[in-house]
C-alpha cells in the first residue's frame, strides 16, 4: 500500500461475516472452554458447559495465581456452570447496523492482495497471543513476589 505511486485507502478484509457470538464461541473453544448460552435478550449469559482439562492457562490475577501452582489447568480455575459472559447495556451502540462486511475488491484488484488468514485461524492466533501475554504477566508477578519476600 505504501509502495504505491499514488496513496489510496484500501479495505483489507476476508469478505466473511461472523457474529459476535461466533467470535466468542470460537475464542473460548481455542482456550479450552465450551460455552452454553442461557436466558434471553439482556439477561442472556454465557456459562461454562465443559472444560478441556489438559489446556494450561496462566492467570494475570495475583490472588488466583497465589492460590494455585504455576501448572494450573482450566479445571482448577473454572467450573462447569460458571458465568463467563454477561450483557451490559451500557455498551450498546445507539445506531447499530445489522451487518458489517469488508469489501477488499479494490485491494485485490490493484494490489493483487488475497487474504491468507481466515476467521477461525485469526481467532486462534489472537487467543494464543493473549494466553502468552497472560503467562508472561504471571511470570513477572512471580518474580516480583519472590523479590518482595526476599526483602523481608
Percent helix, as a range, is 40-55%
Discrete helix count: 5
Give the beta-strand count.
3
Query: Which structural class matches the secondary elements?
Result: alpha+beta
The termini sit apart by 56 Å
Please give a structural write-up.
The structure is a single chain. The chain has 152 residues and is of the alpha+beta class. It has one domain: UDP-galactose 4-epimerase, domain 1 (Alpha-Beta Complex). The chain contains five helices and three strands, in the order H-E-E-H-H-E-H-H. It has helices spanning 20-30, 62-67, 74-77, 105-111, 119-151, and strands spanning 33-38, 45-51, 83-86. Strands 1-2-3 form a three-stranded antiparallel beta sheet. Helix 1 crosses helix 5 (119-151). The relative contact order is 0.20. Residues 58-71 have low confidence and may be disordered.
At a glance:
The chain has 152 residues and is of the alpha+beta class. The chain has helices at residues 20-30, 62-67, 74-77, 105-111, 119-151, and strands spanning 33-38, 45-51, 83-86. A 3-stranded antiparallel sheet has the order 1-2-3.
Task: Name its key features.
single chain; 152 residues; alpha+beta; UDP-galactose 4-epimerase, domain 1; 3-stranded antiparallel β-sheet; 5 helices; extended
Amino acid at each position: 500500500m505504501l509502495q504505491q505511486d499514488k496513496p489510496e485507502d484500501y479495505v483489507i478484509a476476508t469478505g466473511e461475516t461472523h457474529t459476535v457470538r461466533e467470535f466468542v464461541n470460537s475464542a473460548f473453544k481455542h482456550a479450552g472452554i465450551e460455552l452454553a448460552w442461557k436466558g434471553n435478550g439482556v439477561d442472556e449469559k454465557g456459562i461454562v458447559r465443559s472444560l478441556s482439562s489438559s489446556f494450561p492457562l496462566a492467570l494475570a490475577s495475583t490472588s488466583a495465581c497465589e492460590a494455585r501452582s504455576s501448572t494450573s489447568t482450566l479445571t482448577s480455575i473454572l467450573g462447569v456452570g460458571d458465568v463467563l459472559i454477561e450483557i451490559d447495556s451500557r455498551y450498546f451502540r445507539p445506531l447499530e447496523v445489522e451487518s458489517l462486511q469488508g469489501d477488499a475488491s479494490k485491494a485485490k484488484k490493484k494490489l493483487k492482495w488475497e487474504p491468507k488468514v481466515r476467521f477461525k485461524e485469526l481467532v486462534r492466533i489472537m487467543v494464543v497471543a493473549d494466553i502468552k501475554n497472560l503467562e508472561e504477566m504471571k511470570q513477572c508477578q512471580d518474580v516480583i513476589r519472590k523479590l518482595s519476600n526476599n526483602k523481608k
